[in-house]
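Please discuss these two lines.
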Amino acid sequence: MNVRNIRFSGPMVRALLDGRKTQTRRVLTIPRDYSHAVVSRRGSDGPRYVQLTPSSDYVSARQAPRTCATGDLLWVREAWRTPESLDHLSPKQIEARCKELGYHGPWCPRVTEADNHAHQWLGGDGFREGEPVGRFRASMHMPRWASRITLNVTDVRVQRLQEISEADAKAEGIRPLPMQSETDSSAWWESDYGENQARTPVASFRKLWNSLNDKRDNGWDTNPLVIAVSFEVIKANVDTVLSEVAA
C-alpha cells in the first residue's frame, strides 16, 4: 500500500462528500520524445505503467513513472482556512505550535472552503471564543494532518480522455439538474449548481475538463492519455484510516 496526496477543487470536494464522485482522471505527462504512447498492462492489480514508444530512432523505449495501484490510499487536499490569529504561520509552523502545546499530533481548528464547514472550532486551547476565520489557504498548502477525506483506490486504468463512457462521466460527479431524474431522457446534466450544463453526462464532463485543463494545453480536443482512478470515499483523515487498518 502506498499513501499519496491528491488535490480537488471545491465543487469536486462537494461531489466526493455527496457520494457522487467515485472516479477521477489525471493527465499522464508524456515527455516530448515519447509522444507515441501505448498502454502496457502489467500486474494483477491493473496497469501500473505505460509503455512509451519513442518518436525517433535516437531515443530508447522507456516506461512512464508508476501510477497509483489498487489498495493505495490518497489523502485529499482542498482549500482551507484557520483562525485569524494563525494567519502569520505556515502549516508546518502550526504543526510545531500544536506539538509545543502538548498534543500528541497536530491539532488546529479549521474551516474547509468547499462547504464552509468548521472542524473542531470549539474555542479555548489558546484560541479566542468566536475568533474570526483567517486568510484563504490554497489546496496545495493543505498538510496531511488537516485533510478530512481519504480515497481507497479500487481500480486504475490508462486510457485516452475521450474513451470516457456516460457511466464514467456520472462517476466523475456529473449529475442531473435539480428536479430532474437520471432516467429522464430529456434531462440536462451539470458538474455543480449551475456549472457546465449540457445535454449528456459526457458533454458536461467535457466542459468541466476544459475549464480545468484547456489553459494547460490538455483540453478535450487534444485527447491526452489519462490515468482513470476509481475509489471509495472515506470521510476521515488518512492517518486515522491507517491506524484502524493496523489495529
